[in-house]
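Board notes, transcribed. Complex of a protein with D-allose.
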Amino acid sequence: MILDSNKIAAHNEGLYTAHKNKLVFTASEIAQSESIIQKLIDFQIAIPSWALGTGGTRFGRFAGGGEPRSLEEKIEDVGLLHALNKASGAISLHIPWDTVTDYKSIKALAAQHDLKFDAVNSNTFQDQANSEHSYKFGSLQNVNKAIRKQAVQHNIDVIQQGAELGSNSLTIWLADGSNFPGQLNFRKAYENTLESLQEIYAALPADWKLFLEYKCAEPNFYSTTVADWGQSYSYVKKLGDKAKTLVDLGHHLPNANIEQIVSILLMDDKLGGFHFNDSKYGDDDLTAGALKPYQLFLIFSELVEGMDARGMNHATDLGWMIDASHNIKDPMEDLLQSVEAIMIAYAQALSVDRKALEIAQNENDVVKAQEILQNAFRTDVRALVAEARLRSGAALNPVALYRQLGVRENLIGERGLKTVATGL
Ligand code: AOS
Ligand code: ZN
Ligand code: ZN
Ligand code: ZN
């Protein structure tokens, strides 16, 4: 299904007057609104290929209809999202959930939808059909050298496949760890993991980055071998300049100050990118901004401040990706909501009066500092985000248009009601 641009234009026409009125008011409230709109136009958030199908829990899965059955259909779905919001111009593949047989045609299909290939993700948390060894007791950390070798080789294969597609980063998330005290020698697990990572790092092309994701628990519940930002930092520091830490918002112990973590990693040039989602209890992978929009704003506030201090390009110098998974929403609607929430947080962060904040900080004017941040957070920036979409040829209200056009019903017509998405 390809979206007809006339339908987007007709939808926008219907909403135009109301939008313009809001925009005029918003621009009167926010000094740098024009430059914010430009930055929003440039900002793209990658969609993970595994988020397009309905997720499950360990108790079960309720399949949605019309889910993508192949990589081609996943690319088409991201293409649809991108046509609706012009802010989802990249897809992140997970190998071997996504297998590419014909690179030329996959690249052509992505190009046709104006999509790039973002970070490629390796998978050593499941045993693959024809693999010799099992990852039951870990992959890169495993006490058995042959198992470590197999996991290293898989990562090297993923790099090669990603390079064929024009991707330039590898994301490694390890399920490695232990379930019971005594199961693992922590130091040896660390040393094995480091040695394995070094072998993978050595296979990176010159212009590539390696992102090392951390997670405090799950699926292992006593220890995780890359458990927190400090441990990820310790590895990436030893690996070299191309290795960076990846922050998944749901991977922290409760109440962790993620914005501070982000600020320090950025300062040390060790922040690689993000997996956006939201959570209440753990790695819930709920829609970005659904529960803690203020935290999302505070994270973006540190990002904008830190990237500007280092002269970085907001759109291209870090990896921006959603990592969410749902078992009750239409995944496409959910992704549109996540992108919108991220854009809003970014726009709010861009609107912070940095000079005034710096003065307040230097004068220890705590009240003023809080006023400045909360003023930015409480100012409605949605018209700026919508204007960025309008100027890019996207829809003023993507979720509304998605429903109005009956996209899901169309996909069910094409693909059937009972599809099994590849991957999860
Ligand atoms: C797992 O918890 C991590 O968030 C991974 O980044 C990701 O969800 C996984 O690679 C896909 O299953
Ligand atoms: Zn229980
Ligand atoms: Zn993640
Ligand atoms: Zn996760």
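The longest helix spans residues 5-29. Residues 83 and 394 are 6 Å apart (CA to CA).
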